[in-house]
Amino acid sequence: MKTLNPYIDFSGKCREALEFYKQCLNGEIVMVQTFGEAPVNAEEKDKSRIMHSEFKAEGVHFMASDGMPGRKAKAGDNISLTIHFTNEKEQEKVFKALAEGGKVTQPLEDTFWGARFGMLVDGYGIHWMLNCMKQ
Q1: What digits encode the pLDDT tens for the residues 109-118?
Q2: Distance, CA of 43 to CA of 50 (rounded, Å)
Q3: What fold, for 74-135?
Q4: Which fold has domain 11-69?
Q5: Which of 63, 76, 73 is closest to 117 using CA atoms?
Q6: Largest pairwise CA distance in the chain
Q7: Are the beta carbons of 34 and 50 closer than 8 angstroms?
Q8: pTM of the predicted protein model
Q9: What is the per-residue DSSP string for 79-95?
C-alpha cells in the first residue's frame, strides 16, 4: 500500500505559512520538528528552522519545511510529491522506475527517523520523496 502527499519547502517561512493555512482551512499543525531537535549537524542560526512538519484539515494533508539551510527554493522546485510505502520491495521498484531518465538526489537509505528514504527528480522535472517506515 502507498499514499501520496505534497511536501512544500517554504524557504524559511514555514511557521508563518502553517499558521496561515491553519486559519484558512480550519486545520491543525500535527507536528513540527526543528533542525535543532533532530540528530543532524546544524549551525546555531539554523536550529530553530523547521526541518519537518505536518498539516491536516478536512480532506487536506501536506508536509512542509523551511528547506535545507543555505538553499533557497524557487517556484517549481519548492514542492515535492511524497509517496509513503509499507513495502520496501515496492519502494525500490518505484524508485528505480521514477529515476529512469531523471536524477537521483538522495539514494534510498536508512534514516534516523526509522525509515528507508530517497529523493529524485524524474525526467519531467517532478521532485519525488519516497519513504518507507521500518517495521
Answers
A1: 999 999 999 9
A2: 13
A3: 2,3-Dihydroxybiphenyl 1,2-Dioxygenase; domain 1 (3.10.180)
A4: 3.30.720
A5: 63
A6: 41
A7: yes
A8: 0.77
A9: EEEEEEES-HHHHHHHH
